[in-house]
Amino acid sequence: MAGTGILLYRFWTVENPSLLVCTLLFSLVLIFRFGRKGKSTADSPPPSPWRLPIIGNLHQLSAPLYKGLHALSLKHGPIIRLQLGSIPYCAVSSGDLATQVAKTHESLFSDRRITKGARILFSEGDGVLISPDNKCWRLARKLCVNELLSLRKVQSIHFIRKEEVARLVSMIRSSSDQKIDLSDSFLKLAGSIVSRSVLGRKISSDEDERDNVEGKLALQSAHAITDWFSFEDIIPSLSWLDHLTGLSRRLKNTSQAIHAFLDQVIDERETAGIQSGNEGDDTKCFVDIILELLKKEMISPDFTRGNFRAILLDMFVAGITTSAAAMEWAMTELARNPRIMKKVQEEVRGVVGSQSEIHESDLDRMEYLKCVIKETLRLHGLTLIARQASTTVTIGGFRLPAKVTALINIWAIHRDPAAWDKPLEFLPERFLNTCYNFKGQDQVYFPFGLGRRICPGVDFAMSEVEYALANILWLFDWELPDGMLAEDIDMRATTSVIKLKKAPLCLVPVPVASPACQCT
Fold first, then answer.
1. Burial classification of residue 348, based on how many CB atoms lie within 10 Å of its CB (0-12 exposed, 13-18 middle, 19 or more buried)
2. Cα 387 to Cα 400: distance, rounded to the nearest angstrom
3. Which chain positions lie within coiled-coil regions (predicted)?
4. How far is Cα 336 from Cα 424, in angstroms, rounded to an integer?
5. Is 100 in contact with 46 (CB distance < 8 Å)?
6. CA torsion through residues 205, 206, 209, 213, sign
7. Does 516 map to a domain?
8. Does the pLDDT at position 68 exceed 50?
9. Which of 35, 84, 191, 352 is surrounded by the most beta carbons within 10 Å?
10. How many beta carbons lie within 10 A of that of residue 24, not counting itself?
11. Across the chain, what does the average pLDDT equal?
């Protein structure tokens, strides 16, 4: 969707110049005929840039979408009415208006407009990420929170994080003084942790066998849901063009591959039986627990195999890519800022002292590390969240019609100079001695969203990110490859809702003299 403006702009200007001229003339007639409204009131819609028939405001949006929306907001204000193709949208770029949409009126904005990619991938059941606010969504969210994402469950699977981070440390040690791809390493780490805690699959330590199927499927799913351009999402009557471009086939093939993989996992765990003999409940994976609840008829009979797959797919898309991106960008910013790197390493090493390993309780005393992560998520975290209005509602004194989709520009809010001092600089100190958290309770900081649809996996993600970063900052110094300067680091990001680096982060690890870590 982020590239929609560029793609259609090329279509109109290059391939159909005569059609463009006619369209522009017709648009000018409309503008002079109806003119612009006076100052808005509660009975009028938000201001809107001029638009063209058929494509609406698509020609005014550059890629990535969140930057294009931000540019328009600087001209027209923090709330803008847009027409992307034939679909009505409203762009929201201020914290107070975002709070009105997702919290004050959360019951009216609890649904999401589903993209073609999401509809095909989740064709046989509702999950948590993109499903409408209905009985199935509430059941799916309850299962995820109670059986995987609650603080108690997150703490109970610390042994998985410990073992997988130990494997990461071992791999880094074997590559000491050589450049390693941290982007790929973090994706594998996140994939392994989700694979074990959700699917009960322990990936082989043999590098030749470790092909990271989970991580690849997570990225492919995320791209299919949010990034692959579809004519149907913009102009439904042109859905047939998706067949010509090959998109429909790609989505179908991706869906079949993911469903087959998840079905295989469910069948394997079901055949093996619930591993409850000599093991406690805390050692069971999420799939085991759901199968056990189904066997005991403790889940609604409306819960289908499709719902099961949808929840697992949610865990992959959100659980792997979000954590991997946070670790990747944190180390990127530290590599660019040696002062901050030194400061956070001194804190971590001071807390650990002469211990032979990092305990989870130690993380509570690593305040500056937490600030580094918060600042990373401010600059490189979630970019957009979408909420669809179920009825007419007034936001910021403007009337929004039913079915309009509000695009909350988290990227812009996190860079608002009215809310943040030096908003474009990486300054973890800004979070010291503040009340900012990950729960979306502030009007300027929403790294995991806000309102009833806030990401429920905050504890799961942060426990992994904090523990992994603490270990590699404790045990290694990090240098840039020979001949590379901090300003040479490629900071370009993908256009996804969850931003990853376009170019992988490659650094050189240098082991430091410290007590041998028991986990290695």
1. buried
2. 12
3. none
4. 14
5. no
6. positive
7. no
8. yes
9. 191
10. 12
11. 85
Q: What is the dihedral of CA 112, 115, 117, 118, to 10 degrees?
A: 10
Is 506 within any annotated ligand binding site? no
Residue numbers of the domain that contains 169: 4-511
CB atoms within 10 A of CB 341: 18
Q: pLDDT per residue over 226-275, tens digit each?
A: 666 788 888 999 999 999 999 889 888 888 888 888 899 899 898 887 54
Angstrom CA distances, 275 to 34, 160, 265, 362, 461, stand at 69, 17, 15, 32, 26
- Based on the structure, what is the number of domains in the chain? 1
Residue 156: give its domain's CATH number: 1.10.630.10
Sheet bearing 476-479, strands edge to edge:
180-181, 506-511, 476-479
Cβ-in-10-Å burial (0-12, 13-18, 19+) of 364 comes to exposed
DSSP label at 13? I
Mean pLDDT confidence for 114-132:
80
Nearest to 218 by CA among 182, 261, 180: 261
Q: In whole angstroms, give the CA distance from residue 197 to residue 148.
A: 8
pLDDT band of 25, cuts 50, 70, 90? low
Among 467, 433, 225, 421, residue whose Cα is nearest residue 323: 467
Q: For residue 358, what are the CA distances in angstroms to 65, 209, 294, 470, 484?
A: 41, 29, 38, 8, 32
Indicate whether 6 pLDDT > 80.
no
* Domain annotation covers residue 44: yes
Q: Is the per-residue pLDDT at 39 higher than 80?
A: no
Please tell me the distance from the alpha carbon of residue 304 to that of residue 374, in angstroms, as a whole number. 38
The residue written with tokens 């991706």 in the block is: 254
Tokens encoding 423: 């908003």
Does any domain span residue 519? Answer: no
Give the strand pairing for 79-84 and 87-92: antiparallel
pLDDT band at 40 (very low <50, low <70, confident <90, very high): very low
Partnered with residue 353 across adjacent β-strands are none
Closest CA to 392 of 137, 87, 97, 90: 90
pLDDT at 303: 86
Q: Tokens at residue 321, please?
A: 């890519």
Predicted pLDDT of residue 41 = 54
- CA dist 383 and 402 (Å) reads 24
- For residue 412, tell me if it sits in a domain: yes
Confidence band of 211 (pLDDT split at 50, 70, 90): low
